[in-house]
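Q: What would this chain look like folded?
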Amino acid sequence: MRNDLSIERTQPTRAHWRRRVAAMALMLGAMAGSSAALAQTAPKPDWSLADMPSQAGRFFLVTGGTSGMGFEDAKALAASGAHVVIAARNAERGREAMDRIRKDTPDARLQFEVVDLANLDSVRALGRRLGTALPRLDGLINNAAVMALPQRGVSADGFEMQLATNYLGHFALTAELMPLLRKSASPRVVTLSSIAVHRGGLDFDNLQSDKAYDAYAAYAQSKIACLMFAFELQRRSDAAGWGITSMAAHPGIAVTELVARGPGLDSEQGRRWAAGKDQMQSAAQGAIPTLFAATAPEAVAGAYYGPTGMNEMRGPLGLATVPAVAQDATAAARLWDVSEALTGARFR
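A: My prediction, written as structure tokens:
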């Protein structure tokens, strides 16, 4: 299956160039207006869980909710009254996560659902189960991830494992859950990216890292894809009237299991991570941008939230820096088409 899209090339005319210039002017004007709007609605830097409005009566799904930021998301949402579905691969860890949450919130409304994001059959099965079990879905947090796997692996569907888990699985899951999301009066989708997007690119000729595999480049590419997906979902929601509010968030550098489960604690990165661990954010701090995007009334559709300290590794909440590659709407539309072809997912 090809991962590229053919473009017919014709000789440009003067009228063609006039149209291109006019379209560019409109696009730049829209971008300027959007940037100004976002600047005026930057979040309160010290936003915390105390600022989170009640989520009573709302339904959320958090992928990877058994540890790290996903667990903190589920814990905070449950404490605020939401019904939280924790979706992850390991049922035992799911039960342990729910038990931990109930120690602080005895009446927490929780359920665990098994899903393997690297297996599209598993993703579709989760969509079917929730379609009959839930009345609607008010929030979807696409959080689960794997990072910098030392050797290239492939998913059950033959995709590079980081792209499959971090991006393609969430792309397909969001599509599967669209009917439930559209039953909500104000549905939100928050997709997790990473500061790694500033150290990578999107290569349609090596999307599956099958021509050359670099563990960190593959991770960065998967997270660029997540960021582009969040923006493109908002554009398509606006155009089609889906009513979805889509945003992206990143945690900076937080203490989670990503390194242990990826390159490993005995790797060079693992040793650097251990040495600098005291300077990193906790998982609870890393979850703040996601929780703001998922619940704050002032969160802006199409925005990207994260910490604003040095290199956005930690610090006060704010608008995160968007790399140039993720601002390319043409590339985002191409990525969407490729993703539909690879996964068979359709948004409706």
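The beta strands are 59-63, 83-88, 109-114, 139-142, 188-192, 245-249, 304-307, 317-319.
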